Amino acid sequence: MNNKNNKIYCSFxxxxxxxxxxxxxxxxxxxxxxIIFFKKNNNxxxxxxxxxxxxxxxxxxxxxxxxxxxxxxxxxILSTTIYNHYKLINNINKKYIYxxxxxxxxxxxxxxxxxxxxxxxxxxxxxxxxxxTDATTLTQAGYVGExxxxxxxxxxxxxxxxxxxxxxxxxxxxxxDKISKKSYNPSITxxxxxxxxQQSLLKIIEGTISxxxxxxxxxxxxxxxxxxxxxxxxxICSGTFNGINKIINNRLNNNIIxxxxxxxxxxxxxxxxxxxxxxxxxxIPEFIGRLPIIINLKELNKKSLRKIxxxxxNSIIKYYKxxxxxxxxxxxxxxKSLDKIVNKTFNKKTGARGLKNIIENILENVMYFSPSxxxxxxxxxxxxxxxxxxxxxxxK
Length: 396
Hints:
Blueprint: E1 7-9, E2 16-18, E3 22-25, E4 28-31, H1 32-41, H2 57-67, H3 72-90, E5 105-108, H4 115-126, E6 130-134, H5 150-158, H6 163-166, E7 170-174, H7 195-206, E8 209-212, E9 226-229, E10 234-239, H8 244-251, H9 275-281, H10 285-289, E11 293-296, H11 302-310, H12 316-325, E12 330-333, H13 335-348, H14 352-369, E13 376-381, H15 383-388, E14 392-395
Parallel strand pairs: 5-10, 5-11, 6-7, 7-10, 12-13
Antiparallel strand pairs: 1-2, 3-4, 8-9, 13-14
Helix pairs in contact: 2-3, 2-4, 8-9, 11-13, 13-14
């Protein structure tokens, strides 16, 4: 500060300003221009609080419709749950909200039906901090594998160690069906990756102060832990739950004895899964009680798979066309070739993931040598290409 003319310098741009135009914070002087600049360019605050005034459930679903085909019921429930969750967080200091329970979600559906894509799209399009983790890596504390607290540490990392953003984030746990109890009968060996993990997740999902090691990994007595309150963290769990339809059929007395009895046991997710079915599948009642919203995702039919190929903004065909466009090559798929790709995928029962696998096998050799050749003008994928994996190449 210059005492003679009562002027001070901005600590960042070093410009002289009058005292009433400078903001003083923690012994630092900042002018208004620098404050505006840092607000626009501050990478530490990656995520912002979800604005429920502008993003209503219908607006959320409209965005999801651009990237995810079908699963309308799942998109509606998920949009409403996320909206209500952040509406309560934004008004948590109001008098009428004194005690509320989170509406954690369980997504149940066949592989490739869009469970993980829902979470990825929400994070990317709505700037909500979401961490996607796998339940198969989790074990009970003290055993080889990841501790349950590590999933909170991953969210903390994603939020650049901003505790406030972490405590308002979302944790998506995939393959949750893999931590079901391995057996109803007690045994000598502990079920450290099954019931043990369920017990460890109970308090975190419900809401507790979890003490996280600053560098992740196992806890050590001498470390200074980071306290994270999980009360406002929304948990979304997902899994395929192979074989649960047998339990549903038993509940509905829908067993058929004969040669065609296996048709009932397909994982077509036709009927609504009840909490009692999940308990018989191998989950403890306390764990299921903390996931009050159960969403059934239906198996994708041929019509849905055909739409996934071409219609969404992130469609597989658009991705590969753009990939070849970067090499100045035009990639074309005939209508018959698209139908054959859909039929192959549907017969394999691999969902939307199977579409990319088939196209990748078809274009594998072309993608390898095409960057080295400058005289390729066009690549055509027709119905014969699907059979022999040899696309038609047109040279300049």
